[in-house]
Design a protein that fits this description.
35% of the residues lie in helices and 19% in strands. By secondary structure, it is of the alpha/beta class. Helix 3 links the parallel strand 6 and strand 7.
Protein backbone atom coordinates (compact mmCIF):
# COMPACT_ATOMS: atom_id res chain seq x y z
CA UNK A 1 0.00 0.00 0.00
CA UNK A 2 1.16 3.51 -0.81
CA UNK A 3 -0.58 6.56 0.56
CA UNK A 4 -0.44 10.29 0.88
CA UNK A 5 -2.31 12.45 3.36
CA UNK A 6 -3.29 16.01 2.59
CA UNK A 7 -4.36 18.31 5.39
CA UNK A 8 -5.94 21.71 4.75
CA UNK A 9 -7.19 24.62 6.80
CA UNK A 10 -4.20 24.61 9.13
CA UNK A 11 -5.14 27.95 10.66
CA UNK A 12 -8.47 26.62 11.91
CA UNK A 13 -9.22 24.31 14.82
CA UNK A 14 -8.33 20.68 14.24
CA UNK A 15 -11.99 19.60 14.20
CA UNK A 16 -12.59 21.99 11.29
CA UNK A 17 -9.75 20.66 9.15
CA UNK A 18 -10.16 19.32 5.64
CA UNK A 19 -8.53 15.88 5.40
CA UNK A 20 -7.81 13.89 2.25
CA UNK A 21 -6.10 10.57 1.74
CA UNK A 22 -5.20 8.86 -1.49
CA UNK A 23 -2.91 6.13 -2.70
CA UNK A 24 -2.82 2.56 -3.93
CA UNK A 25 -4.03 -0.64 -2.26
CA UNK A 26 -2.47 -4.03 -3.12
CA UNK A 27 0.25 -2.38 -5.13
CA UNK A 28 1.83 -4.70 -7.67
CA UNK A 29 -0.91 -7.31 -7.33
CA UNK A 30 -3.72 -8.20 -9.73
CA UNK A 31 -6.17 -6.56 -7.35
CA UNK A 32 -4.28 -3.25 -7.26
CA UNK A 33 -6.65 -0.29 -6.90
CA UNK A 34 -6.43 3.43 -6.38
CA UNK A 35 -8.18 4.78 -3.31
CA UNK A 36 -9.16 8.28 -2.27
CA UNK A 37 -11.26 9.75 0.52
CA UNK A 38 -12.06 13.28 1.63
CA UNK A 39 -13.47 14.68 4.87
CA UNK A 40 -14.76 18.25 4.58
CA UNK A 41 -14.00 20.86 7.22
CA UNK A 42 -17.63 20.91 8.33
CA UNK A 43 -18.26 17.20 8.57
CA UNK A 44 -21.71 15.91 9.56
CA UNK A 45 -20.29 12.52 10.57
CA UNK A 46 -21.56 10.53 7.55
CA UNK A 47 -19.14 8.85 5.15
CA UNK A 48 -20.23 7.78 1.66
CA UNK A 49 -18.15 5.11 -0.11
CA UNK A 50 -18.37 4.06 -3.77
CA UNK A 51 -16.52 1.35 -5.72
CA UNK A 52 -16.21 3.79 -8.64
CA UNK A 53 -15.34 6.91 -6.68
CA UNK A 54 -12.59 7.67 -9.17
CA UNK A 55 -15.36 8.38 -11.71
CA UNK A 56 -17.25 10.93 -9.63
CA UNK A 57 -17.45 14.21 -11.51
CA UNK A 58 -16.64 17.54 -9.80
CA UNK A 59 -20.30 18.53 -9.43
CA UNK A 60 -21.13 15.33 -7.58
CA UNK A 61 -18.11 15.64 -5.32
CA UNK A 62 -18.88 19.26 -4.57
CA UNK A 63 -22.51 18.63 -3.65
CA UNK A 64 -21.61 15.98 -1.09
CA UNK A 65 -18.73 17.94 0.42
CA UNK A 66 -20.69 21.19 0.60
CA UNK A 67 -23.46 19.37 2.45
CA UNK A 68 -21.04 18.04 5.04
CA UNK A 69 -20.56 14.47 3.79
CA UNK A 70 -17.18 12.75 3.72
CA UNK A 71 -16.74 10.83 0.49
CA UNK A 72 -14.39 8.25 -0.93
CA UNK A 73 -13.80 4.89 -2.49
CA UNK A 74 -11.81 3.10 -5.11
CA UNK A 75 -11.82 1.99 -8.71
CA UNK A 76 -12.87 -1.32 -10.18
CA UNK A 77 -10.42 -3.96 -11.32
CA UNK A 78 -10.48 -6.29 -14.31
CA UNK A 79 -9.76 -9.90 -15.21
CA UNK A 80 -9.94 -12.50 -12.43
CA UNK A 81 -10.67 -9.92 -9.72
CA UNK A 82 -13.42 -8.12 -11.65
CA UNK A 83 -16.34 -9.51 -9.65
CA UNK A 84 -14.67 -10.28 -6.33
CA UNK A 85 -17.39 -8.43 -4.45
CA UNK A 86 -15.99 -9.24 -1.02
CA UNK A 87 -12.59 -7.86 -2.02
CA UNK A 88 -14.21 -4.66 -3.26
CA UNK A 89 -16.02 -4.27 0.06
CA UNK A 90 -12.77 -4.94 1.93
CA UNK A 91 -11.12 -2.18 -0.11
CA UNK A 92 -13.86 0.25 0.85
CA UNK A 93 -13.45 -0.67 4.51
CA UNK A 94 -9.67 -0.19 4.26
CA UNK A 95 -10.19 3.19 2.60
CA UNK A 96 -12.50 4.14 5.44
CA UNK A 97 -9.87 3.09 7.97
CA UNK A 98 -7.14 5.11 6.27
CA UNK A 99 -9.30 8.22 6.21
CA UNK A 100 -10.23 7.84 9.85
CA UNK A 101 -6.58 7.43 10.86
CA UNK A 102 -5.80 10.67 9.08
CA UNK A 103 -8.78 12.45 10.65
CA UNK A 104 -7.79 11.18 14.10
CA UNK A 105 -4.27 12.45 13.57
CA UNK A 106 -5.58 15.85 12.54
CA UNK A 107 -8.02 16.04 15.44
CA UNK A 108 -5.63 14.67 18.02
CA UNK A 109 -8.19 12.10 19.17
CA UNK A 110 -9.84 8.96 17.77
CA UNK A 111 -12.51 9.61 15.15
CA UNK A 112 -15.10 7.35 13.54
CA UNK A 113 -18.05 8.04 11.21
CA UNK A 114 -21.45 8.11 12.82
CA UNK A 115 -22.74 6.51 9.62
CA UNK A 116 -21.22 4.82 6.59
CA UNK A 117 -23.35 4.53 3.45
CA UNK A 118 -22.48 2.32 0.47
CA UNK A 119 -23.23 4.03 -2.84
CA UNK A 120 -22.71 2.61 -6.31
CA UNK A 121 -23.88 2.11 -9.88
CA UNK A 122 -23.53 -0.82 -12.29
CA UNK A 123 -20.85 -3.09 -10.80
CA UNK A 124 -20.79 -0.67 -7.90
CA UNK A 125 -24.43 -1.56 -7.32
CA UNK A 126 -23.44 -5.20 -6.78
CA UNK A 127 -20.85 -3.96 -4.31
CA UNK A 128 -23.16 -1.60 -2.41
CA UNK A 129 -25.70 -4.38 -1.88
CA UNK A 130 -22.94 -6.75 -0.78
CA UNK A 131 -21.46 -4.17 1.60
CA UNK A 132 -24.46 -4.21 3.94
CA UNK A 133 -24.53 -8.02 3.91
CA UNK A 134 -20.82 -8.78 4.16
CA UNK A 135 -19.93 -5.97 6.57
CA UNK A 136 -23.09 -4.91 8.40
CA UNK A 137 -20.82 -3.86 11.26
CA UNK A 138 -19.50 -1.06 9.05
CA UNK A 139 -22.23 -0.11 6.58
CA UNK A 140 -25.48 1.43 7.78
CA UNK A 141 -27.31 1.68 4.43
CA UNK A 142 -26.90 1.16 0.69
CA UNK A 143 -27.97 3.10 -2.38
CA UNK A 144 -27.80 0.89 -5.48
CA UNK A 145 -28.15 2.16 -9.05
CA UNK A 146 -28.32 0.34 -12.38
CA UNK A 147 -28.29 -3.27 -11.40
CA UNK A 148 -26.87 -6.00 -9.28
CA UNK A 149 -30.09 -7.14 -7.69
CA UNK A 150 -30.09 -10.67 -9.11
CA UNK A 151 -26.49 -11.25 -8.07
CA UNK A 152 -23.73 -12.49 -10.33
CA UNK A 153 -25.19 -15.94 -11.08
CA UNK A 154 -28.79 -14.84 -11.60
CA UNK A 155 -27.74 -11.95 -13.84
CA UNK A 156 -25.71 -14.19 -16.12
CA UNK A 157 -28.15 -17.07 -16.29
CA UNK A 158 -30.42 -14.91 -18.44
CA UNK A 159 -27.53 -13.57 -20.49
CA UNK A 160 -26.24 -17.03 -21.35
CA UNK A 161 -29.78 -18.20 -22.15
CA UNK A 162 -30.00 -15.37 -24.63
CA UNK A 163 -26.59 -15.90 -26.25
CA UNK A 164 -27.09 -19.68 -26.40
CA UNK A 165 -30.47 -19.33 -28.10
CA UNK A 166 -29.09 -16.88 -30.65
CA UNK A 167 -26.28 -19.27 -31.56
CA UNK A 168 -28.57 -22.31 -31.81
CA UNK A 169 -31.05 -20.54 -34.06
CA UNK A 170 -28.75 -18.41 -36.23
CA UNK A 171 -25.44 -20.28 -36.56
CA UNK A 172 -24.79 -23.36 -34.41
CA UNK A 173 -21.34 -23.65 -36.02
CA UNK A 174 -20.25 -20.24 -34.73
CA UNK A 175 -17.00 -20.29 -32.75
CA UNK A 176 -18.86 -18.47 -29.99
CA UNK A 177 -18.60 -20.48 -26.76
CA UNK A 178 -21.44 -20.39 -24.25
CA UNK A 179 -20.01 -21.87 -21.05
CA UNK A 180 -16.42 -22.60 -20.15
CA UNK A 181 -15.13 -19.76 -22.34
CA UNK A 182 -11.59 -20.08 -23.77
CA UNK A 183 -8.65 -18.22 -22.29
CA UNK A 184 -7.30 -15.09 -23.88
CA UNK A 185 -3.74 -15.58 -25.21
CA UNK A 186 -2.72 -12.38 -23.43
CA UNK A 187 -4.51 -13.12 -20.18
CA UNK A 188 -6.39 -9.83 -20.56
CA UNK A 189 -10.10 -9.46 -21.21
CA UNK A 190 -12.06 -6.65 -22.78
CA UNK A 191 -14.01 -5.67 -25.87
CA UNK A 192 -11.38 -7.18 -28.20
CA UNK A 193 -11.62 -10.62 -26.56
CA UNK A 194 -12.20 -13.22 -29.27
CA UNK A 195 -15.54 -14.30 -27.84
CA UNK A 196 -16.87 -10.73 -27.90
CA UNK A 197 -15.74 -10.47 -31.52
CA UNK A 198 -17.54 -13.75 -32.26
CA UNK A 199 -20.72 -12.49 -30.60
CA UNK A 200 -20.57 -9.28 -32.62
CA UNK A 201 -20.26 -11.30 -35.82
CA UNK A 202 -23.21 -13.49 -34.84
CA UNK A 203 -25.34 -10.43 -34.11
CA UNK A 204 -24.30 -8.99 -37.46
CA UNK A 205 -25.37 -12.17 -39.24
CA UNK A 206 -28.72 -12.16 -37.46
CA UNK A 207 -29.34 -8.48 -38.14
CA UNK A 208 -28.87 -8.89 -41.88
CA UNK A 209 -32.23 -10.63 -42.54
CA UNK A 210 -35.77 -10.48 -41.17
CA UNK A 211 -35.47 -14.13 -40.21
CA UNK A 212 -32.28 -13.50 -38.26
CA UNK A 213 -33.84 -10.46 -36.60
CA UNK A 214 -36.84 -12.49 -35.47
CA UNK A 215 -34.55 -15.05 -33.89
CA UNK A 216 -32.46 -12.36 -32.23
CA UNK A 217 -35.57 -10.76 -30.74
CA UNK A 218 -36.63 -14.19 -29.44
CA UNK A 219 -33.19 -14.78 -27.91
CA UNK A 220 -33.28 -11.36 -26.26
CA UNK A 221 -36.62 -12.20 -24.64
CA UNK A 222 -34.87 -14.82 -22.52
CA UNK A 223 -32.94 -12.08 -20.72
CA UNK A 224 -35.98 -9.77 -20.77
CA UNK A 225 -34.07 -7.21 -22.81
CA UNK A 226 -35.51 -3.72 -23.01
CA UNK A 227 -37.02 -2.50 -26.25
CA UNK A 228 -35.78 1.00 -25.44
CA UNK A 229 -32.01 0.83 -24.87
CA UNK A 230 -31.28 4.19 -26.52
CA UNK A 231 -32.78 7.14 -28.36
CA UNK A 232 -36.40 8.32 -28.22
CA UNK A 233 -38.85 5.92 -26.65
CA UNK A 234 -40.69 3.88 -29.33
CA UNK A 235 -44.43 3.38 -29.11
CA UNK A 236 -45.53 0.41 -27.04
CA UNK A 237 -46.49 -1.56 -30.16
CA UNK A 238 -43.71 -0.30 -32.46
CA UNK A 239 -42.06 -3.70 -32.41
CA UNK A 240 -39.99 -3.02 -35.51
CA UNK A 241 -38.18 -0.08 -33.90
CA UNK A 242 -37.86 -1.97 -30.64
CA UNK A 243 -36.35 -5.00 -32.38
CA UNK A 244 -33.78 -2.94 -34.24
CA UNK A 245 -32.81 -1.22 -31.01
CA UNK A 246 -32.43 -4.58 -29.29
CA UNK A 247 -30.14 -5.77 -32.08
CA UNK A 248 -28.03 -2.64 -31.69
CA UNK A 249 -27.53 -3.20 -27.96
CA UNK A 250 -27.38 -7.01 -27.82
CA UNK A 251 -23.59 -7.33 -27.80
CA UNK A 252 -23.19 -4.52 -25.26
CA UNK A 253 -25.68 -6.16 -22.95
CA UNK A 254 -23.91 -9.52 -23.11
CA UNK A 255 -20.18 -8.86 -22.68
CA UNK A 256 -18.46 -12.20 -23.02
CA UNK A 257 -15.27 -10.92 -21.43
CA UNK A 258 -17.21 -10.25 -18.23
CA UNK A 259 -18.58 -13.80 -18.22
CA UNK A 260 -15.02 -15.06 -18.69
CA UNK A 261 -13.85 -12.92 -15.76
CA UNK A 262 -16.57 -14.47 -13.62
CA UNK A 263 -15.57 -17.97 -14.71
CA UNK A 264 -11.96 -17.23 -13.80
CA UNK A 265 -13.09 -15.99 -10.40
CA UNK A 266 -15.23 -19.08 -9.81
CA UNK A 267 -12.75 -21.56 -11.20
CA UNK A 268 -15.09 -22.86 -13.90
CA UNK A 269 -18.45 -22.39 -15.65
CA UNK A 270 -21.16 -20.82 -13.47
CA UNK A 271 -24.18 -20.86 -15.80
CA UNK A 272 -26.32 -23.71 -17.11
CA UNK A 273 -29.51 -24.46 -19.04
CA UNK A 274 -30.00 -28.21 -18.69
CA UNK A 275 -33.34 -27.76 -16.94
CA UNK A 276 -34.74 -24.78 -18.86
CA UNK A 277 -38.06 -24.73 -20.74
CA UNK A 278 -37.64 -21.90 -23.23
CA UNK A 279 -41.29 -21.90 -24.27
CA UNK A 280 -42.16 -21.24 -20.64
CA UNK A 281 -39.54 -18.48 -20.37
CA UNK A 282 -41.00 -16.76 -23.42
CA UNK A 283 -44.50 -16.88 -21.99
CA UNK A 284 -43.27 -15.20 -18.79
CA UNK A 285 -40.82 -12.78 -20.40
CA UNK A 286 -43.22 -9.93 -21.10
CA UNK A 287 -41.98 -9.90 -24.72
CA UNK A 288 -44.24 -12.49 -26.38
CA UNK A 289 -46.16 -9.98 -28.52
CA UNK A 290 -42.94 -8.42 -29.82
CA UNK A 291 -41.47 -11.82 -30.63
CA UNK A 292 -44.63 -12.99 -32.38
CA UNK A 293 -44.73 -9.79 -34.48
CA UNK A 294 -41.20 -10.41 -35.72
CA UNK A 295 -41.89 -14.05 -36.50
CA UNK A 296 -44.99 -13.10 -38.47
CA UNK A 297 -43.01 -10.36 -40.25
CA UNK A 298 -40.26 -12.84 -41.16
CA UNK A 299 -42.63 -15.62 -42.17
CA UNK A 300 -41.21 -18.02 -39.58
CA UNK A 301 -42.86 -20.59 -37.32
CA UNK A 302 -42.21 -19.60 -33.71
CA UNK A 303 -43.23 -23.00 -32.37
CA UNK A 304 -40.77 -24.71 -34.70
CA UNK A 305 -37.90 -22.61 -33.37
CA UNK A 306 -38.96 -23.26 -29.79
CA UNK A 307 -38.92 -26.97 -30.63
CA UNK A 308 -35.40 -26.56 -32.01
CA UNK A 309 -34.30 -25.03 -28.72
CA UNK A 310 -36.04 -27.77 -26.76
CA UNK A 311 -34.06 -30.43 -28.63
CA UNK A 312 -30.70 -28.65 -28.75
CA UNK A 313 -27.73 -29.88 -26.65
CA UNK A 314 -27.59 -28.10 -23.30
CA UNK A 315 -24.67 -26.78 -21.25
CA UNK A 316 -23.82 -27.08 -17.58
CA UNK A 317 -21.89 -25.37 -14.80
CA UNK A 318 -19.25 -26.64 -12.42
CA UNK A 319 -20.76 -27.26 -8.96
CA UNK A 320 -17.52 -26.08 -7.37
CA UNK A 321 -17.56 -22.85 -9.38
CA UNK A 322 -21.21 -22.23 -8.57
CA UNK A 323 -20.48 -22.77 -4.89
CA UNK A 324 -17.56 -20.33 -5.02
CA UNK A 325 -19.59 -17.59 -6.68
CA UNK A 326 -22.57 -18.22 -4.39
CA UNK A 327 -20.38 -17.17 -1.49
CA UNK A 328 -19.08 -13.94 -2.99
CA UNK A 329 -21.49 -12.92 -5.72
CA UNK A 330 -25.05 -13.73 -4.66
CA UNK A 331 -27.24 -12.19 -1.98
CA UNK A 332 -28.84 -13.32 1.27
CA UNK A 333 -30.98 -10.26 2.03
CA UNK A 334 -29.52 -10.24 5.55
CA UNK A 335 -28.33 -6.66 5.95
CA UNK A 336 -28.08 -6.37 9.72
CA UNK A 337 -30.99 -3.95 9.67
CA UNK A 338 -29.46 -1.66 7.04
CA UNK A 339 -31.97 -0.21 4.56
CA UNK A 340 -31.35 -0.47 0.81
CA UNK A 341 -32.72 1.82 -1.89
CA UNK A 342 -32.57 0.28 -5.39
CA UNK A 343 -32.96 2.63 -8.37
CA UNK A 344 -33.07 1.52 -12.01
CA UNK A 345 -33.72 3.00 -15.43
CA UNK A 346 -36.29 0.97 -17.35
CA UNK A 347 -34.25 1.12 -20.57
CA UNK A 348 -31.12 -0.61 -19.26
CA UNK A 349 -29.74 -3.03 -21.85
CA UNK A 350 -26.97 -4.37 -19.59
CA UNK A 351 -29.14 -5.19 -16.58
CA UNK A 352 -32.81 -5.83 -17.28
CA UNK A 353 -35.21 -3.88 -15.12
CA UNK A 354 -36.87 -7.19 -14.27
CA UNK A 355 -33.77 -8.28 -12.39
CA UNK A 356 -34.69 -5.83 -9.65
CA UNK A 357 -37.58 -8.14 -8.82
CA UNK A 358 -35.03 -10.83 -7.99
CA UNK A 359 -33.63 -8.64 -5.21
CA UNK A 360 -37.13 -7.92 -3.95
CA UNK A 361 -37.69 -11.68 -3.79
CA UNK A 362 -34.43 -12.16 -1.89
CA UNK A 363 -35.32 -9.52 0.69
CA UNK A 364 -38.78 -11.04 1.14
CA UNK A 365 -37.32 -14.51 1.63
CA UNK A 366 -35.00 -13.11 4.29
CA UNK A 367 -37.89 -11.42 6.08
CA UNK A 368 -36.45 -7.99 5.32
CA UNK A 369 -38.88 -6.70 2.73
CA UNK A 370 -39.44 -3.50 4.70
CA UNK A 371 -35.73 -2.66 4.54
CA UNK A 372 -35.96 -2.33 0.75
CA UNK A 373 -37.48 0.28 -1.50
CA UNK A 374 -37.26 0.25 -5.31
CA UNK A 375 -37.70 3.14 -7.72
CA UNK A 376 -37.72 3.30 -11.51
CA UNK A 377 -36.68 5.98 -13.97
CA UNK A 378 -38.15 6.51 -17.43
CA UNK A 379 -34.92 6.77 -19.38
CA UNK A 380 -32.90 4.49 -21.70
CA UNK A 381 -29.34 3.43 -21.14
CA UNK A 382 -27.19 1.67 -18.60
CA UNK A 383 -26.34 3.59 -15.43
CA UNK A 384 -27.96 6.68 -16.92
CA UNK A 385 -29.42 8.19 -13.74
CA UNK A 386 -28.97 11.94 -13.62
CA UNK A 387 -27.12 13.57 -10.76
CA UNK A 388 -30.31 15.01 -9.31
CA UNK A 389 -31.94 11.57 -9.39
CA UNK A 390 -28.97 10.08 -7.57
CA UNK A 391 -29.05 12.82 -4.96
CA UNK A 392 -32.80 12.44 -4.46
CA UNK A 393 -32.30 8.72 -3.82
CA UNK A 394 -29.43 9.39 -1.45
CA UNK A 395 -31.40 11.97 0.54
CA UNK A 396 -34.26 9.48 0.79
CA UNK A 397 -31.93 6.98 2.46
CA UNK A 398 -30.61 9.67 4.82
CA UNK A 399 -34.19 10.44 5.86
CA UNK A 400 -34.76 6.72 6.45
CA UNK A 401 -31.72 6.61 8.74
CA UNK A 402 -32.71 9.83 10.52
CA UNK A 403 -36.27 8.78 11.29
CA UNK A 404 -36.21 5.00 11.26
CA UNK A 405 -39.05 5.05 8.73
CA UNK A 406 -39.08 5.28 4.97
CA UNK A 407 -40.28 8.63 3.65
CA UNK A 408 -42.64 8.76 0.71
CA UNK A 409 -40.84 6.94 -2.14
CA UNK A 410 -43.54 7.36 -4.78
CA UNK A 411 -42.42 8.64 -8.16
CA UNK A 412 -44.14 11.96 -7.52
CA UNK A 413 -42.41 12.41 -4.16
CA UNK A 414 -39.01 11.52 -5.59
CA UNK A 415 -39.48 13.92 -8.51
CA UNK A 416 -40.43 16.71 -6.11
CA UNK A 417 -37.35 16.03 -4.01
CA UNK A 418 -35.16 15.96 -7.11
CA UNK A 419 -36.59 19.23 -8.38
CA UNK A 420 -35.82 20.90 -5.07
CA UNK A 421 -32.23 19.69 -5.29
CA UNK A 422 -31.98 20.72 -8.95
CA UNK A 423 -32.86 24.31 -8.04
CA UNK A 424 -29.47 24.57 -6.32
CA UNK A 425 -27.45 22.97 -9.13
CA UNK A 426 -26.50 23.85 -12.71
CA UNK A 427 -28.60 22.48 -15.57
CA UNK A 428 -25.91 19.88 -16.24
CA UNK A 429 -27.14 18.02 -13.15
CA UNK A 430 -30.00 16.76 -15.32
CA UNK A 431 -33.72 16.29 -14.89
CA UNK A 432 -35.83 13.84 -12.93
CA UNK A 433 -37.98 11.13 -14.53
CA UNK A 434 -39.08 8.81 -11.74
CA UNK A 435 -42.18 6.85 -12.74
CA UNK A 436 -44.47 4.26 -11.22
CA UNK A 437 -43.50 0.98 -12.85
CA UNK A 438 -44.02 -2.75 -12.30
CA UNK A 439 -41.49 -4.92 -14.15
CA UNK A 440 -42.26 -8.46 -15.22
CA UNK A 441 -40.78 -10.86 -12.66
CA UNK A 442 -37.26 -12.11 -13.35
CA UNK A 443 -37.22 -15.42 -15.22
CA UNK A 444 -34.29 -17.17 -13.53
CA UNK A 445 -32.95 -16.27 -10.11
CA UNK A 446 -30.29 -17.57 -7.75
CA UNK A 447 -29.88 -16.39 -4.16
CA UNK A 448 -29.42 -17.85 -0.68
CA UNK A 449 -32.58 -19.95 -1.06
CA UNK A 450 -30.76 -21.87 -3.81
CA UNK A 451 -27.32 -22.18 -2.26
CA UNK A 452 -25.96 -25.71 -2.33
CA UNK A 453 -28.69 -27.05 -4.59
CA UNK A 454 -26.76 -27.23 -7.86
CA UNK A 455 -26.60 -29.34 -9.97
CA UNK A 456 -29.27 -32.04 -9.57
CA UNK A 457 -31.09 -34.22 -7.08
CA UNK A 458 -29.67 -37.71 -6.57
CA UNK A 459 -29.32 -39.71 -9.77
CA UNK A 460 -31.51 -42.74 -10.38
CA UNK A 461 -30.32 -45.85 -12.20
CA UNK A 462 -31.99 -47.16 -15.32
CA UNK A 463 -33.40 -50.65 -15.14
CA UNK A 464 -31.26 -53.35 -16.81
CA UNK A 465 -34.00 -53.72 -19.42
CA UNK A 466 -33.40 -50.16 -20.58
CA UNK A 467 -29.87 -51.07 -21.73
CA UNK A 468 -31.11 -51.97 -25.21
CA UNK A 469 -29.20 -52.93 -28.36
CA UNK A 470 -29.97 -49.52 -29.88
CA UNK A 471 -27.78 -47.74 -27.30
CA UNK A 472 -25.06 -50.35 -27.05
CA UNK A 473 -21.61 -48.91 -27.76
CA UNK A 474 -23.00 -45.36 -28.08
CA UNK A 475 -20.40 -44.69 -25.41
CA UNK A 476 -17.01 -46.39 -25.40
CA UNK A 477 -14.66 -47.50 -22.66
CA UNK A 478 -11.02 -46.81 -23.39
CA UNK A 479 -9.99 -50.24 -22.10
CA UNK A 480 -12.17 -53.29 -22.47
CA UNK A 481 -11.09 -54.54 -19.08
CA UNK A 482 -9.99 -53.05 -15.77
CA UNK A 483 -9.18 -54.16 -12.26
CA UNK A 484 -11.26 -53.25 -9.20
CA UNK A 485 -10.32 -49.82 -7.84
CA UNK A 486 -8.79 -48.65 -11.13
CA UNK A 487 -9.77 -45.61 -13.20
CA UNK A 488 -11.72 -46.03 -16.41
CA UNK A 489 -12.16 -43.38 -19.09
CA UNK A 490 -15.55 -43.29 -20.81
CA UNK A 491 -15.89 -41.47 -24.14
CA UNK A 492 -19.33 -39.96 -24.83
CA UNK A 493 -18.38 -37.88 -27.85
CA UNK A 494 -17.71 -34.15 -28.06
CA UNK A 495 -21.40 -33.50 -28.67
CA UNK A 496 -21.93 -34.25 -24.95
CA UNK A 497 -19.34 -31.72 -23.77
CA UNK A 498 -20.66 -29.48 -21.01
CA UNK A 499 -23.39 -31.90 -19.93
CA UNK A 500 -23.93 -33.63 -16.61
CA UNK A 501 -24.14 -37.41 -16.58
CA UNK A 502 -24.23 -40.32 -14.16
CA UNK A 503 -22.24 -43.51 -14.78
CA UNK A 504 -23.40 -46.93 -13.55
CA UNK A 505 -21.87 -50.38 -13.31
CA UNK A 506 -24.33 -53.28 -13.78
CA UNK A 507 -25.41 -55.58 -12.18
CA UNK A 508 -26.63 -54.80 -9.64
CA UNK A 509 -26.55 -51.11 -10.59
CA UNK A 510 -23.89 -49.13 -8.72
CA UNK A 511 -23.23 -45.45 -9.42
CA UNK A 512 -19.58 -44.60 -10.05
CA UNK A 513 -19.06 -41.23 -8.42
CA UNK A 514 -21.66 -38.47 -8.28
CA UNK A 515 -22.82 -36.26 -11.10
CA UNK A 516 -20.00 -35.96 -13.61
CA UNK A 517 -19.36 -33.01 -15.90
CA UNK A 518 -18.36 -33.97 -19.43
CA UNK A 519 -15.23 -32.08 -20.44
CA UNK A 520 -14.47 -30.49 -23.80
CA UNK A 521 -13.03 -33.78 -25.05
CA UNK A 522 -16.37 -35.51 -24.49
CA UNK A 523 -15.03 -37.89 -21.85
CA UNK A 524 -15.40 -38.61 -18.14
CA UNK A 525 -13.23 -40.71 -15.85
CA UNK A 526 -14.66 -42.98 -13.16
CA UNK A 527 -13.15 -45.28 -10.55
CA UNK A 528 -14.33 -48.87 -10.30
CA UNK A 529 -15.31 -49.99 -6.80
CA UNK A 530 -12.52 -51.77 -4.97
CA UNK A 531 -14.91 -54.64 -4.26
CA UNK A 532 -16.22 -54.97 -7.81
CA UNK A 533 -16.70 -58.65 -8.64
CA UNK A 534 -14.38 -59.93 -11.35
CA UNK A 535 -16.79 -60.74 -14.17
CA UNK A 536 -18.30 -59.31 -17.31
CA UNK A 537 -20.31 -56.17 -16.50
CA UNK A 538 -22.11 -53.43 -18.36
CA UNK A 539 -21.16 -49.78 -17.90
CA UNK A 540 -23.95 -47.32 -18.72
CA UNK A 541 -24.13 -43.52 -18.96
CA UNK A 542 -27.37 -41.63 -18.22
CA UNK A 543 -28.22 -37.96 -18.67
CA UNK A 544 -29.70 -35.80 -15.91
CA UNK A 545 -33.23 -36.91 -16.80
CA UNK A 546 -32.32 -40.60 -16.45
CA UNK A 547 -32.24 -41.31 -20.18
CA UNK A 548 -29.67 -43.89 -21.23
CA UNK A 549 -27.12 -42.22 -23.49
CA UNK A 550 -25.25 -45.43 -24.12
CA UNK A 551 -23.62 -48.47 -22.58
CA UNK A 552 -20.72 -50.77 -23.22
CA UNK A 553 -19.41 -54.10 -21.99
CA UNK A 554 -16.63 -53.92 -19.42
CA UNK A 555 -14.72 -56.90 -18.03
CA UNK A 556 -13.62 -56.49 -14.43
CA UNK A 557 -10.50 -58.58 -14.00
CA UNK A 558 -9.01 -59.98 -10.78
CA UNK A 559 -6.39 -57.74 -9.11
CA UNK A 560 -2.99 -58.21 -10.73
CA UNK A 561 -4.49 -59.93 -13.78
CA UNK A 562 -3.25 -58.75 -17.16
Amino acid sequence: MTASVLLGGASTAAAATDVSVKGVLHQGERGQVVYEAIKPASWNGTLVLDLDFNNWNPAQRQWFLSHGYAIGGNQRTQNETAYELHDYVDNLVETRSLLMKAVSAADGEPSEPTRTIAFGASRGSFVSRMAVEYRPDVFDAAVAFAGGGAGVIGSWLGKTDSVWALKQLVDPSSRLAISGLPDSPTGEYGATYDQDVALGQLVGTASATPQGMARLVLAAAFEQATGWPSGPEPAATDYETQGKAIAGSFAFGNPQFVLKEIEIMGGGPVTWNHDVDYADLLQRSGALDRVQWWYDHAGLDLQADLATLAGAPRFAASPEAVSTVEGIGTFSGRTGGAPVFSVKTIGDSADSVSLDTAYQQTMRSAGNENLLRSAFIERPGHSSQSLVEKLAAFQTVVDRLDTGEWPNTSAAALNTRAQQIAATLPASAGDSRFIEYSPAPALRTWDFTNWGSYPYPAATAASPGELTPSTRDSVTVAAGSAAPGSDVEVDLGEQRAGQWVSVWLYSPARQLGGWLWVGADGAVTVSLPADATPAKHRLAVLDHEGTVLGWSDLKVTPPGHR
